[in-house]
Amino acid sequence: MKLTKPIDQALYFFAVLTGLYGQGKSTLAHTAPGPILSLDAEGRTRFLENHHIITFEEWQESPKQKLGHESIVVLPVRSYADYRKGIDLVTRGDHPFRSLVIDSLPEIQEKMKAALRPGVTFENYSRADWDVWDRLQHFMMEDMRYFQDLSLPEHRRPMNVVVVCPINEDEDTPRRPYVQGKLRKHVMGFPDMQIAVKRVKELDDETGTTRPAWVLILNDDEEMRLKCNIPGIVSHHEGDEVWDPDLTEDIAKVINHQETKETA
Length: 264
Prior knowledge:
By secondary structure, the protein is α/β, with parallel strands linked by helices. It has one domain: Rossmann fold (3-Layer(aba) Sandwich), CATH 3.40.50. The chain is built from eight helices and ten strands. Strand 3 (52-55), helix 2 (56-61) and strand 4 form a beta-alpha-beta unit.
């Protein structure tokens, strides 16, 4: 099947990618359509394979260089100022990137907290500190709204947005995103999809042995609150699970009616 829309009219998605720690969220997030701008607050991009990794400084020195589908420009987020540098770039729209990856939301929240009130912990909070906390919650909710807008065709330079956010590991179910404050309850309301990745063991019927496998879950299961509001994704995959997922093949190409590996 051929692409039915010109590239400048392509559809983009906003996804919150969740799951327990160590399940492969960062790896899967970077399978979004490239070139990717990765705001990496956890250092996970150094473990990525089969990608052309470029530092943000290297790209700034030669911004006209050609970036391919496998290109990932990495901006390490060591402070809130680093994070804003990346957001300001995509806001201006003068860039070559098709996708933005935020890895991860809890770490960005910590960077913002440190910027608003350095050196303060919950043990020594004052009334003024709680006012700062309220401001932080407001700013983060505004950022989630901005990511929502960034994926819309009306934006001056729309992009796919993938926000990585682990879930809590306690026994309470359904598990929620591992962020603090009211954002914990409201994260799910912003993206087109809140989806989760799991590592499982798959049985080989011929050999009787098992192998590690990767499953993307599109809608609620027993442990997590999830959603997929994009028409056609669940029906295309004939259910709520995608095995050995790839965000370009299994999400971006499907919503744009492009030929995928399954239909080629």
